[in-house]
Structure formats: structure tokens, C-alpha cells
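Co-fold these.
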Amino acid sequence: MKTRIISGVVLLPVLIFLVVSGGIWLQVAVGFLGLVGMREFYQAFSKENRGLHTICYVFAVIYMVFIDQIINRNNYFNIFVSVFLVVLLIYTVLCHNHTNAMEGMTGFFGFFYACFLLSHVYLAREYTHGNLLIWLAFIAAFGCDTGAYFVGVSCGKHKLIPTLSPKKTIEGSIGGIATATILALIYGWWIQRTFILEDVNILLLCGLTGFFGSFLAQIGDLAASAMKRYTGIKDFGNLIPGHGGVLDRFDSVILTAPVVYYIMWFLVNN
Amino acid sequence: MKTRIISGVVLLPVLIFLVVSGGIWLQVAVGFLGLVGMREFYQAFSKENRGLHTICYVFAVIYMVFIDQIINRNNYFNIFVSVFLVVLLIYTVLCHNHTNAMEGMTGFFGFFYACFLLSHVYLAREYTHGNLLIWLAFIAAFGCDTGAYFVGVSCGKHKLIPTLSPKKTIEGSIGGIATATILALIYGWWIQRTFILEDVNILLLCGLTGFFGSFLAQIGDLAASAMKRYTGIKDFGNLIPGHGGVLDRFDSVILTAPVVYYIMWFLVNN
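Predicted complex below.
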């Protein structure tokens, strides 16, 4: 517990600095976390296969370096996906003695789960008003966690999904969604008072991201539990002392960040 | 052999009609073949899981119905991929007793391999000059097959990858690439003589698609062999009597179509 608090206290300012500064620093940090997350994913799901995993890391680096072009220009993302698929198939053919199709699928999915989804933290930060609205991804994830904990402890009676996560309760789950939605709305109210954003309905945006984000934060948490249960591991990694690996600590943010980005993209008029 | 020839003679005109007409007919046909291909893929790789596979089919249908928007509008394809991932994760959590993460990965990859790659037949056909240039996908795939067969039979000595495909030779492989490239160039020369396309260097486009297309046609063929060898099946399916399933018959076109589409996209000036 002590280690957990110390590393939290040390790393929280770093996280805040990176998100506040945005730009290249955040891009590098998200890319690094994405690569570590992919490594954790591969170690959990597939036996050591350096060649295949190196290919996936290379594509993740290409994706993170050219992310603005890949996401914002016509056809670039489907070209990227097609080339990635083709190279994986070429590798499967040429190195068929060392690999098989299942490993190729794990490599492909690992990129999307650990790197692509997490990259929405960067995408949302760089979008219009991203400096203000990116925090909703963390409010939804950590607000939901905290609310679910306190509501669950105080009045949790009905188990949510005991085989995946024995301590979670339905009351806690609802409390988490309510807490995150209220926190997001308070944050939206503060933004509205402090800044004048005329091109977006800020309360609607905050309410939607708080609600859907906190629902998906729990899905992200439980999906990571399901994967760990399936592979028989306790934690994905140990990058952050006391918190586990990237996929343990950011299992919720992986899903709240895309929610924030796509709701911003939908509601902010450019 | 007789069945193979009869179904070839019956289905070839249908294929030609669909590609010539393009538009909605081709869209429906490619969508149908994509869904059948996905079903073949899932039957080979994962045990019966109707819920999960239904989700993947639904996303494939959404993709094929809205393919023009999803591919040609900013952010639509990454939204599609994100929502697909999120829904698979939700399913993995809610139905964790009936499924596991590996099945989710198979579902995800199966869509990209069987439906997304094949959909480039439609995308290439609908692109500028697609009515003329889409044929390059078939020239590369079937020209390579035929050339490789005759060169291999007449002077094939060195085995290519005997564990995956015992009869293929290096001489045949080179002969296939040469045949397809020459056929594509002849086709390009005919186009140049017959039509006046001022916005593209047609011989360069045909040479590139013939060369890279026929290389990838062989990769597609061998990758399908590797998958069949891994799962211990002889054919993916039996939709086309004498030819096997969609993934058996179109294993090369699955890779030549993206090559044609992206080279067109790169070289045709709009």
C-alpha cells in the first residue's frame, strides 16, 4: 500500500504535466505507454515470438509518429491497417515454422487494444478545446473508480459479476456512474463559467462523456480482469510499483479516452 | 475436375457481370462473399460461438452498407474500429462464461481478413477508372496462378516452401510474377491505345500492380495454406463446388484487390 501511494504521488504530477503540455511530449509518452502495454499483452497471451512482436511494435511506432496524418487524412488509416495485415501475413508465410495464425491475430489485436485505444488520449488532447476536455477521460475513469468504491463499501449488497471481480457490487457500479456523471457535469459547469466556448454545448458533452465514459470505464476494468483470469496472471506488468502494468493502471482510460474523443468530434462544431 | 470446370463456366459470367456493373450489385455480392468468408474463418479457428460471431457479422454488414462513408470520410473508419472493439469487449465481459479473449481476437481478425480486405474489390471498382483498372486485381491473381503452373510444370526444380505447399517451385513463383506483370502491361498498353486517360501513367500503374499484386497473390495463397495446415482442414468451405469456399477461391484476390486500390489511389490524380 505504501509503495502504491508513493508511486502515485510521484507519477501523478508527471501525468498532469504531460497532459497539460500536450504536443510532442504527450505523443511520446502515449507511444511509450502503448508499446509497454502491447508488450504486457503479448507476454500474457502469446509465447515468446520476437519477430512477430517486433513487426507489431514497428507498426505501433509508425502509427504514433504519423498519428495526425493517419487519423485525419482520408484513406490513411485503412492503408495503415491493410499494410499491417499484409506484413503479418507475409511474416506468417515466411516464418511458418516459428509462428502460426493465432499468434498473428494476437499481434494484430494487441496493437489495437493497447496502443490504438490509448492513443485517443493524445487525439482528444490535440482536438479543439482538448486542453480542457481531455480531463473528462480521467474524471470518468478515476471518478467512477472512487465513487464505486465508496458506494460499494457503504451500501453494496448485490454482486455484479463475482466470477470476474468478486468485490464489485451492482450498487457500487451505479454509484460509480452517478459519481462520474456528476463530477463531469460540475467540471462542465466550471468550464462554462470560466471560459466562453461558443461552438459546443458543454454541459451536454460533459454529461454524455461522464455517463458513457464511466460505464465503459467499468467494462475496461472487467475486460482486463477477464483477460487476466483467462491467461492465469495476477497483473499484466509491474511498470508502476504498487499499481501493476500499463494495462492494469490504464484499463479504464483505454476506453474512456475514445469516448471523450468521439463525443468531442461529434459535438464540437469546427 | 468436371465439377470444378462446370462451376467455373457457370460462375465466371456472374463474376464478370457483377464487376462490370459495379455499384449496388457488386456491393451486395462482395458483402455476401465477405460474410461467407468470415463464417468459413470462424468455423476453422474458433469453436461455435453464435453470439460473438453474430456481433462480427453485424459489424461487417454495417461496414459494407456504409463503406463509401466509412472509407472516404475523416475519422469514420477509426470510429468504426473503436466501436467494434468496444462492443467485443462488452460482450467478453457480459458473456465471460461462454467466451474468452482469444475468441474475441479471432472475431476481430476474421472481419479484417475476410471482409475488409475483400471489400477493396468494391472500393477499386468504384474509384476513378475503376471500371477499367479493377481487372488488374484478377489479372494479377489468376495470371500469376496460371503462369506459375505452366512455368512450374515445364521447368520447376527448386521447391518454394514444401511444408506449406509441396508442389510450388521457385521457378514457378518467378514465372507467375513475370506472367502477371507482362499480362498487366499488355492490358495497360491496350487501355492506353483504346481510351485516353490523361490523369494517370497507365503503364506504370499496370506494371506496379502486376508485379506487387502477383507477389502478394502468392502470399495470400500460402497464408491460406498455412491457416488450413494449422487448423487441420483441407478446405475452408464448399460454397463453390470443385473450388472450395470463398477463402479458398479468393485467397489471392483478397490481397491483390488492396494493392490495386491503393496504387490507383496513389497514382490517379483527382
